[in-house]
Amino acid sequence: MEDRKLTVRAVERALDILMCFTTGSDLGLTEISGQIGLHKSTVHRLLTTLEERGFVIRDQATDKYKLGMKIWELSMHLSHSDDPAILLLPQMEKLRDRLGETVSLYVRDGYDRLRIQAVQSNQAIRRVAPVGARLPLYVGASSKVLVAFADSAFRQSLLEQPDWPEAVSREAYQAQLDQIRQQGYAISYEEREPGASAVSAPIYSRSGQAFYALSLSGPVSRLTVERLDEYGPVLIEAAREMGIMLP
After folding, report:
1. Which of 119, 146, 147, 223 is the most exposed place for a label (fewest CB within 10 A)?
2. Upper half-sphere CA count for residue 112 (Cβ side, 13 Å)
3. What pairs with residue 105 in β-bridges?
C-alpha cells in the first residue's frame, strides 16, 4: 500500500510539472521547483523521466525545458466532433469580422476561467488573447458571466474562498451578479488590466446550463462603456446561436 501511495504521488507531481507550462513555454528547473513547491533534486528526477518519454524537451543552450512532441501527439487524438473550441470557431470569426474586435471563448475550471479559443482582431491596436490563459473569477466580464449563471451553491462557495481579494467587495460583486442575470450580459472597463474593456454573454448548452462565456474585448478607446452596452444584445444573440450548435 505504501509503494502504491508513493507511485501515485510521483504521478501527481509529474502532472503538476506539466501543468507549469500553462504559465510559460520555456521554464528552468528553479522556476518549476518554485511553482510546485518541491526540492530541485526531486523535480530534476521527474523531468529526466518526462524527457526520456518525450513529454518535455531540455534546451542544451539555455538549460530550460519546454513541452515535447509527445504532448502534441496526444492532442492529435482528441475527439473534435463535440469540442466547442472547434465547433464554434467559424461563428467566432464571423463575430470578429462583424464587430472588429477580439473574440474569446471561456470555460469555468474550478475557481478560475480558462480561455479555450480566441480569434484576434485584425486592427493594428488590438486586445491580444492567448489561448490557454487561466484567469481568476472575481474580475472581468467573462468571469462574472460564468459565476452569475452558475448555480447558487457555486456562487456562495466562491465568495467564501479564503483567498478572496480584500480590494473586491463581496457585496458589490453579488450586486453585479444580480444585474448581469437580469440584463443577460456583463461588461468590464479596465477591471483586469488598464486600457482594456470587454463584454460577455453566456452560452447555454441544450441541457440549459451555461458552461461557456463568449467575450468581445478591445481597447477602451474603441470599446467605451456606451459601446459595450450597445454590443451586449449582439453578444447575447451570437451566444444563443452558438448554443444551438453544441451537443
Report:
1. 119
2. 8
3. 117, 214
Instruction: Please list the residue range(s) of the chain that carry CATH number 1.10.10.10.
Output: 2-74
Domain 84-245 = CATH 3.30.450.40: yes
Domain 2-74 has CATH 1.20.1260.10: no
Measured in whole angstroms, the distance separating CA 238 from the mean position of its chain's CA atoms is 20
- Tracing cell 450548435 back to the chain, one arrives at 245
51-to-40, 66, 154, 228 alpha-carbon distances in Å = 16, 10, 39, 47
Q: What is the SS3 assignment for 218?
A: strand
Quick one: cell of 210?
Answer: 451555461
One digit per residue, the tens of pLDDT, for the chain of length 247 reads 555 555 688 899 999 999 888 777 789 999 999 999 999 999 999 999 999 999 999 988 899 999 888 887 776 665 555 688 888 999 999 999 999 999 999 999 889 999 999 999 988 877 777 888 888 999 999 999 999 999 999 999 999 999 899 889 999 999 999 999 999 999 999 988 899 999 999 999 877 888 899 999 999 999 999 999 999 999 999 999 999 888 7
Provide the 10 A C-beta neighbour count for residue 28.
16
Residues comprising the chain, all counted? 247
DSSP designation for 129: -
> CA 118 to CA 214: how far, in whole Å?
10
For residues 56 and 18, give the distance between their C-alpha atoms in angstroms, rounded to a whole number.
Answer: 8
List, by residue range, all CATH 3.30.450.40 domains of the chain: 84-245
